[in-house]
Amino acid sequence: MPSAGGTVTSDNNIYILACESEESDRLFLFQYSHAENVWKRVGVSSPTETLALATNGERFHHLLVGVDQVLYFLAIEWTLGNTYNLLRMARYNRHTDQWQECSHLELNKKCHQMEALPCGPNLYFFPMKGTEVYCYDPTRDSWCKRTPPRISTDIFTAVAVGTEIFCAGRDRDVTQMMVYNTVSDSWYELAGWPNPEVLSPHLYIFPRLFILENQLHVLLAAFDMFDKPSGCLVYVYDRSADAWRDLEAALPDEAGVGCCFECCVARIYLPYLKGAQNHIAEVSS
């Protein structure tokens, strides 16, 4: 099933957005069943239908985000002439099995990509060009603007740890790490991982930050000018030493990592995994 975005909630449930068939272009929500090892559709409505969005991929860019155990669908709708962008959002109501529209956010600048993630009870939104930061309060259904980073750089990936959000760019900014403290509404810089010298300088580097066993990791995927995969590296951050360590991990060739890949971590229960009963494993996907 081709996925158009996914997330893991705080109760370790894995959700993706996908079309039910190749003939359909409507996105629906699917949940992974740990016990049956299958994907099951949930909800009677589509978030794209709720927001009246076209699903041809030309009018909007979207994300699926879980805040606590609540799911949010975010879509940047491009206006005619791209004079401004509108961030529209819908929330999945488990009691009614339907999507409900939330407050929208008008963006003053063009925004073709974004990063959004939960930190504490709120949702934080970063347009790809790191000049603005917004916070959504679910209890008030309202947006507010927060302090932007001092350095203007593309925010390609972000992950939350406690009350802090770690952000990184890509390509020439790939080794630059910035940290946003949601409590003090302030930023500071963190030591970036070493420049991946084992990879050709002619490659494009796409990073994805993720948390595994309470440690900050980054997966670096390299692609040539034809979007052909050219290798992956995984680093883990040692906060006491303020340094990154290469895990010398290797993804199998059939992993099929693309330049728009996501990196989520969840605890899954598969009784038949490796033939062991009651086996619990942590995986990234």
CATH architecture of the domain at 1-134: 6 Propeller
Termini Cα gap: 14 Å
H/E element string?
EEEEHEEEEEEEEEEEEEEEEEEE
Give the beta-strand count.
Answer: 23
- Mean pLDDT rating: 78
Derived from helix and strand composition plus strand pairing, the structural class reads mainly beta
Q: Class of the domain at 1-134 in CATH?
A: Mainly Beta
Radius of gyration: 19 Å
**Helical run tally:** 1
Sequence stretches where pLDDT stays below 50 over 5 or more residues:
274-285
Care to describe what's here?
This protein has 285 residues and is mostly beta strands. The protein has a domain at 1-134: 6 Propeller (Neuraminidase), CATH 2.120.10.80. It has one helix spanning 47-50, and strands at 3-8, 14-19, 27-33, 38-42, 60-67, 70-78, 85-93, 98-101, 105-107, 114-119, 122-127, 133-137, 142-146, 157-161, 164-168, 177-181, 186-190, 204-212, 215-223, 229-238, 243-246, 265-269, 280-284. Strands 5, 6, 7, 8 and 9 form a 5-stranded antiparallel β-sheet that branches. It has a 4-stranded antiparallel β-sheet with strand order 1-2-3-4, with no helix packed on it. The protein has a 4-stranded antiparallel β-sheet with strand order 10-11-12-13, with no helix packed on it. The longest helix has 4 residues, at 47-50. The radius of gyration is 19 Å and the shape is globular. The two termini are 14 Å apart. The relative contact order is 0.10. Residues 274-285 have low confidence and may be disordered.
Quick tags:
single chain; 285 residues; mainly beta; Neuraminidase; 5-stranded antiparallel β-sheet; 4-stranded antiparallel β-sheet; 1 helix; 23 strands; 1% helix; globular; disordered C terminus
